Structure formats: structure tokens, C-alpha cells
Amino acid sequence: MEVLIYDNYDAMCAAAAAAVVETLNAKPNAVLGMATGSTPLGVYRELVRLHREEGLDFSQVTTFNLDEYVGLGPNHPQSYHRFMREHFFDHVNIPPQNVYIPHGTTSNAPAFCDWYEQRIKDCGGIDLQILGIGTDGHIAFNEPTSSLGSRTRIKTLAKQTIDDNARFFDNRDDVPKYAITMGVGTILEARQIALLADGSKKAAAIASAVEGPITSMITASALQWHANTQVYVDTAAAGALTMTDYYRWIQDHKPGAP
Ligand code: PGA
């Protein structure tokens, strides 16, 4: 994994947005993997700005979101459908028919999950997947002990994830207990992965994911198998890494570094 450390959240998001731009410049009809949560908000803000002010074009782009809560319809205020519209899709020119987000109210989840996997394949696979990380080390909703070969399916949320996400709901009891999520195996098939984390509450998870053993207890650690993953962190989220001097040295000296 390539660890890229930034002084603050905005600089981290600008760098991750630049990776999206690079992908679109190389392939205007790229397939992007989208994430929800607080972490990628700054990336979406920057991409919206680039669209408005610099004409960044998404007209040929297709997107697949990582996950959705089971039971929440697309207009529920806490649904990831709604989140994505509010923070990104309503502000850029991605054709609505090119947007894929798991259906939290499907009546046949196994068939839906198979269809979702097939759509990703039929669209040519994901070129760049954006990821956050949970405080329990999860990617998407692949909670500890998820198979590292898992595919899109229903997962039961871990207590820690329910606690972490309760801030978005009026009551902790309102947080759904299940989600449809891409699997670790699904995510590992993306051609490029951008994992983002900011703040000291993510420092332990990032250290385990990057420098710890590959284990289903920290599903983000499976990214160590992935040949083209960049880890974007601010200094606080990098706080528990032991090799930061090395990562910074590579960041400053790699070919093409400013
Ligand atoms: P967050 O969530 O960005 O809201 O911290 C990340 C995650 O759970 O993957």
C-alpha cells in the first residue's frame, strides 16, 4: 500500500479528488466506486467544485456505491441513496441511469446481490474505488470476521458500527441492524483503490490495516493484497503508524513528486 500523509483534511481530500480527475482524464467513461460516511465528503465537495468551475465532465461516468442500509428506501433521510444525491449526484452530470446503489428495500436480497455483482462486471469493473474505514477496521460494511473473499451480500452490523453511525440518527435504536454491502472480494477487484481516513479516532484502524497482519478481524488489511491501493491520511489518522518517515520519504521522492 502506498501511504500518503497530508497536513489536514482538506489537503487529503484534494489529493484524492485529483486521483479521480486523473482517472477521468485517462478514461472519460470510467467506472467509479463511491463511498458514504463523513470521510469522503470533502472529496465530493472538491469534485463538485471542479465540475462547476473547471468543467470536469462526468457525462460518461458510471458509479457503484459500496453499501446501503437494509430497510431504508431511497428517500429516507439517512439512506445512502439520499446521501449521495445531496452530496454529489445532484451537483454533477452523471446520467441517473449510470448510478448504482444497493437497494435497501429489495424483496429478494440474494438475487439483488447477484445482479449487482453482475452489473459491475458488465460495466467493465470498477476503475477507482473510494473507501473509508471504520473504527473497527471495516471497509464498506465488511465487519470483523467477514470473509476476505466475500461478495455483495447482507451483513449484520457490528455494535461498534451501530454506535459510530448513531450520530446520523435521532436515536441509536433507529440505526438499521443490517446492510447490503459489496464484499471484500468485490472491492479487491477494483483496478485502483483510494482508502481515506482522517482524525485520531481512525489511527489504530489505519495502523492495523497498513502495518498489521492480514486478518478478517480488520477487513481493510486485505488491501495489502491489492497492487494499486493508495492510503490517504491526515497527520492525526497517521498517528499510530510506525513507518511514517519512510512513507513521507517515498511521498517526497517518488517519480513525479512535486
Ligand atoms: P466515516 O465512516 O467516514 O463516517 O467515519 C467510515 C466507515 O465506516 O467506513
Q: Spell the H/E element sequence.
A: EHEHEEHEHEEHEHEHEH
Q: How far apart are the first and last residues' alpha carbons, in Å?
A: 20 Å
**Number of beta-strand segments:** 10
Mean pLDDT: 96
| Distinct small molecules | 2-phosphoglycolic acid
CATH topology: Rossmann fold
CATH architecture assignment name: 3-Layer(aba) Sandwich
Query: What is the general shape?
Result: globular
Main sheet: strand order: 1-10-9-6-2-3-5
Radius of gyration (CA) equals 17 Å
Q: What characterizes the major β-sheet?
A: 7 strands, parallel
Number of domains: 1
Q: Helicity range of the residues?
A: 25-40%
Q: Would you spell out the secondary-structure blueprint of this structure?
A:
Elements: E1 2-6, H1 9-26, E2 31-34, H2 41-54, E3 62-65, E4 67-69, H3 80-87, E5 99-100, H4 109-122, E6 128-131, E7 153-156, H5 159-165, E8 178-181, H6 184-188, E9 192-197, H7 203-211, E10 229-234, H8 244-253
Parallel strand pairs: 1-10, 2-3, 2-6, 3-5, 6-9, 9-10
Antiparallel strand pairs: 4-8, 7-8
Bound molecules: 2-phosphoglycolic acid.
What does this structure look like?
The chain is of the alpha/beta class and 258 residues long. It has a single domain (2-253), classed as Rossmann fold, CATH 3.40.50. The protein is built from eight helices and ten strands. The strands form two sheets. A seven-stranded parallel β-sheet has the order 1-10-9-6-2-3-5, with helices on both faces. Strands 4-8-7 form a three-stranded antiparallel β-sheet. Strand 9 (192-197), helix 7 (203-211) and strand 10 form a beta-alpha-beta unit. Helix 1 packs across helix 2 (41-54). The two termini are 20 Å apart. Residues 37-39, 132-134 line the site of 2-phosphoglycolic acid (PGA).
